[in-house]
Amino acid sequence: MTRIALDCIHIGMVAATPIVDAEGNLIAAAGADLTSEHVRQLRAVGASTVDVAMVDVFFEPSGEQEPPPPHAVAQRLAAHHVARLFQGSDTRNPLIHELKRLCIARRARQLLEAL
Amino acid sequence: MALVSKRALLEKAQLPTLPPIYSQLVAAINNPQGSVSAISEVISSDPALSARLLHIANSAMFQFRGQVSTISAAVRLVGTQQIRDLSLATLLMTLFDGINPVLVSMESFWRHSLACGIAARALAAHRREANVEKFFVAGLLHDLGKLVLYMNPPDQELLMLLQDPARVLPMYLIERRRMGFDHAELGAALLGAWELPAVLQEAVARHHAPDGARDYPVVAATVHVADIIANSMELGSSGEHMLPPLAQHAWTRIGLPIILLETILQQVENQFDATAELLGPP
């Protein structure tokens, strides 16, 4: 879990803890994928930071000078997200394997469009 | 284990009944002396259904855009079986009210059902099935048994097990362990009580175990795969956190090449919003 500034939130990051407003109303549950609507609500209630999980997906130490390009980040986030969805499936099955590949591509496309 | 019977659960639940217009429509369609005008007359007695069917007949779902101005034209052009199935889909979308939103978001539930129906119809169209709307309705209905469970849960512990975000088993396995049957069988029992066709009953009953389907194995296998596709696309949710497992022979039974999967996902994506707008609650 890492606390990061609201301005640095990327769509698709995962809330590490429940996010509530000053009155205790739930904005995002722990484990929720953060959306542009979440970010809008967080701005509206004056939040400045959010505790997120999976930051390693973005900032994995690689020794690279340049940050990874957006499509690579989207692809890795998408793969992580879809892996959870397929965790009970036999991905050696050709149909499931292809479905998983298509879902990762679709999710990565959605993430890039949302950025 | 808390075993209850399907019959007891159905009897105890305050279940909605199908509007009488549906049975009147089925009777008019099945009447050997019936006519298009008699069928149209039944549909026309329900202005909301008439408007919705005209909207659907003129939509991108069919190739008659803007040309269908009367119910009788819709019946002639779309076909009586498809009109019957589309009427059922339209009537069903407004039937289940009053379920605690903490248990399930009805909007999300119907979005998942709709995605499954559209995926089933796309698979059936690639198989060149004659009545693809039958597959659509089977997909739309596949998880109806979950609504019965939510309306009248047999015990609170089952609800908590189903709601647990950390659970790793699909809902139907938890239900079987807890009750001795699952939402698929419960949904089929409800369709039986509504006297809906046997093909829909078996497709719903077997959507998690299509290899055991006896009379309509292709429809059952199609809804089974469509459910997996709908879950993978995350268009709504009926409560699953992960994909249901693929039955061993389902894809072979459907008989389509895997390379078509990309086209099918694209078709679901393209048709989803328009179909939701056509069939969604008024």
Notes on the structure:
The complex is a heterodimer of chains A (115) and B (282). Chain A is an alpha+beta fold and 115 residues long. Chain A contains 4 helices and 5 strands; from the N terminus they run E-E-E-E-H-E-H-H-H. Chain A has helices at 36-44, 55-59, 70-85, 94-114, and strands at residues 2-5, 14-15, 19-20, 26-28, 49-53. Chain A has a 3-stranded antiparallel β-sheet, with no helix packed on it. A two-stranded antiparallel sheet of chain A has the order 3-4. The mean pLDDT of chain A is 80. Chain B is mainly α and 282 residues long. Chain B is 62% helix and 0% strand. Chain B contains 16 helices and no strands. In chain B, helix 6 runs parallel beside helix 8 and helix 9 (144-151) packs across helix 12 (183-193). The longest helix of chain B is centred in the middle third of the chain and has 21 residues, at 106-126. The model of chain B has no long low-confidence stretch (mean pLDDT 88). The interface between A and B is medium-sized, with 19 and 21 residues.
Write the H/E string of chain B, N to C: HHHHHHHHHHHHHHHH
What is the 3D form of chain A? elongated
Q: What's the Cα radius of gyration of chain B? A: 18 Å
Main interface by residue count: A-B, 19 and 21 residues
Count of discrete alpha- or pi-helical segments spanning 4 or more residues of chain A: 4
Structural class determined from secondary elements of chain A: alpha+beta
